[in-house]
Amino acid sequence: MTTETKTANDIQISGDHYKTSYQHWDMLVMMGYTSQYFVGQATKYISRWRKKNGIPDLKKGQHFVQKLIELTHDHGNKFLQFGHMRDYDIENLIIKHAEAHLRAFFAANDSKIEEQAICVSVLFANTPQRLQEAVDAIEQLIKATVESEEQAIFGGSNAQPPVSAGFDFIEYTDHDTVKWRKKSTGEVQDLPLTTPPMFATWK
Fold first, then answer.
1. Largest interatomic CA distance in the chain
2. Fewer CB near the terminus (10 Å): N or C of the chain?
3. Which 8-state DSSP code applies to residue 102?
4. 193 near 113, Cβ under 8 Å?
């Protein structure tokens, strides 16, 4: 017996009020819109979930990323804004935008390291695999939030921050510090909880 895999169009978050035979996001793609719409919607929900609708917003953000993965498989990496760029160039771009825009945005919205890492992974994804890492990280965040009595990922000793593109979580070194490994070089570094690994200076 085989189980049919659901597509993003088969999934409805919070009711069925906008599920139709011709969905809004498909209309936009047919009109020539590419990844920016999906990235914008996903990061909007992910960055504000704690202040607005909680886990349903996380699931909505995840849904947009899942649709973007499907579209990238259909259209190729060129569908992504940075699909033509190498990981090294992406890292430099992240650093540039972190100073110019991202830090200020995350500070203004009181975003925690978890959603910062996920948003950056989505904003600068250059392959479907990078996007899948974001989907998996959202799943981790949802699970940890459900399991935590305080609805916060760092509320429990076993909670782990989401894996962000290009970095592996190793362990907590103390209450306020996380040990990360940079995938491209194997370098290991302790970072404050408030510093996503893609924003750190790696020697």
1. 53
2. N
3. I
4. yes
Please count the residues of the chain. 203
Measured between alpha carbons, how far is 115 from 17 in angstroms, rounded to an integer?
Answer: 27
Distance from C-alpha of 68 to C-alpha of 64, rounded to nearest angstrom: 6
Residue 172 lies in a domain: no
Range of the domain at 101: 33-154
Global pTM reads 0.73
Q: What is the number of structural domains in the chain?
A: 1
> Dihedral sign, CA of 48, 145, 182, 110?
positive
**12, pLDDT greater than 60:** no
**How far apart, in whole angstroms, are the C-alpha atoms of residue 23 and residue 9?**
8
CA–CA distance, 40 with 177 (Å, rounded to integer): 30
